[in-house]
Amino acid sequence: MDSIAEVREAVKRFPAPEGGVITALDDISLNIQQGQFMTLLGPSGCGKTTLLRAISGFEDLDSGEVRIAGESVAGVPPYRRPVNTVFQNYALFPHLSVSGNVGYGLDLARVSKTEREQRVGEALERVNLSGFDRRKPAQLSGGQQQRVALARAIINQPKLLLLDEPLSALDRNLRQSMQLELKSLQHDLGICFLFVTHDQEEALTMSDQVVVLDHGRIEQIGPPEELYHQPATRFVAGFIGDGTLFSGTIENGAEDPILVTEDGLRISVGIGPSVGTKATLIIRPEHLNIAPQEPDNSLGILDAVLEQSVFQGATRQYVCKLANGTSISVSVAGSGDEALSNVNPGDPIRLAYRRNTPHLILES
Amino acid sequence: MKHPWLKRLLSLHGLLFLAFVYAPIIIVVVYSFNSHPVNMMVWKDFTFDWYLSIFGNPTKLTEQTLYVESTDQLLSAVKNSLTVAVTTTTFATIVGTATALAIYRYHFKLKPFYQGLLYMPMVMPDIVLGIALLVFFINFGVKLGLMSIIIGHCTFLISYVFVVVSARLAGMDSTLEEASADLGANPWATFRRVTLPQILPGIVGGALLAFIISMDDLVITYFIAGVDSTTLPVFIYGMLRRGVKPEINAIATLMLLFSFAIAALGLYFRRRN
What we know:
The complex is a heterodimer of chains A (364) and B (273).
Chain A: E1 3-15, E2 21-33, E3 37-41, H1 48-56, E4 63-68, E5 71-72, E6 83-86, H2 98-102, H3 104-108, H4 113-126, H5 142-154, E7 160-164, H6 172-189, E8 192-197, H7 200-206, E9 209-214, E10 217-222, H8 224-229, H9 234-239, E11 244-251, E12 258-261, E13 266-268, E14 278-283, E15 289-290, E16 299-311, E17 315-322, E18 327-333, E19 348-354, E20 359-362
Parallel strand pairs in A: 3-8, 3-9, 6-7, 7-8
Antiparallel strand pairs in A: 1-2, 1-4, 4-5, 9-10, 11-12, 11-14, 12-13, 14-20, 15-19, 16-17, 16-19, 17-18
Helix pairs in contact in A: 4-5
Chain B: H1 4-31, H2 49-54, H3 60-65, H4 71-105, H5 111-123, H6 126-139, H7 146-170, H8 175-182, H9 187-216, H10 219-224, H11 232-241, H12 247-272
């Protein structure tokens, strides 16, 4: 596969307003392949927007480099880079019509009038906005403005499209349908998307590769499934998906090894880690079930007290409390577990999980 | 509002306020059509004679009162005022806009201090500015005339344009310029296609304000105008010193109309954007 854009050992520091220095990018390296949908995911202030701006040319790196299509773009101004951006607030030109906005890049390139009209028409059709070309941005809804920004950014056929939290201003329903539309648009156009978001659900839905960033460092790069099932660090485990984290030391158990937490909770884990290793176990709600009367050897057991049972439509969630006070959720498909129908909040219950299912993060 | 009489009292207050502000102006307009030749505050008949007189058409009424100063002098004062206002406005608008753009775009040491210096001429008493300019011109051997008035007006009108354009720039979404660059526009194309259209209402507003202030200025101009470069306000002031003449009402009404036209132009530009 061809590399479209590459970031090598990028470092960027800003002076902090209260004095001192903020390291926005701390030795970041990544590689975007032809046709990929890559997402930069992280909490606000993790450096994801700085990284995007370094690629689009609005921010200079202190060290390291950005390469686009194999060539370093150090010192190349934004208007000469073969990338386009969909801005968070859309940044539509208020004095131009939809057609003027979408055709802006073509006007600059002095494309002939007939070609311009045809390509603007195509771009608007792609985002389902045909017939809106004479409107002003102020006459459009948030979702429509979003589509204009998208059409404007793809009309130059960039090698790489950068999207800076473009869906954050939309309401939930619109956001979900736009996620799927963006994904299929990216597939149809065949150009790389580099998408910035702080919403893990959005990242999981759309991406081929997700880059999780925290404090300017890359925590993990991988496909969504890998991040969810095999998080590399505690941060990734906590940031992506629901679940409860247990940190402790591995000790020998009766059969399999046991993770002993600082407050004395003993949780059996699958085969693998050697005794004495410090580790974190992540148990997600779907890993757990109500323990059968006579559990077999492959199951780990947790004793808990039921706190709340919450109906969520397709699933029912049971919020329980473990002996050490940690709260843990169990998610059961359907309207609920029959075995639990006569368990009331405050009653003890036993939870079971397959020992090898929950992921164990070993600390080196 | 609980009591209806409270509401009525509030309406009355509003009417009184409007009367307080506009009654003198309305009186000037009404009496510019009064044909009483001696006491212009005593209504006699409706006439256009004062208007005819200021444009150099002697009528029975004006001949009889012999109030008319040389119409040539009046027209030359109007011409001087327009020359000064147009030149000053052009210069102040270009320099003020460029300064506002520079202050908006660049960060440098002492920026707030520099900004403060730019606001200063707006709050400085006119009389101080007038004296300072006069002393300056005399010391440096600048001949008092239209040029000295133009230079004098520019010193403070640049500030007005700067303030109005700065306000517009502060309200502009700075990512628009980034979006333009992102789509392939070099800095000049971004300025022409995005920045300029965005701040144009501010530039037009600043220019109209500068024009009106320049047309209207008496105090500073009074100090730095030469003998042969009388502007309209200075001319009117001179007329008043030799007694209030009925033509004054007509001239004031025409100036009022002119100001309204400028204000309407400003409103039209703001609406369009």
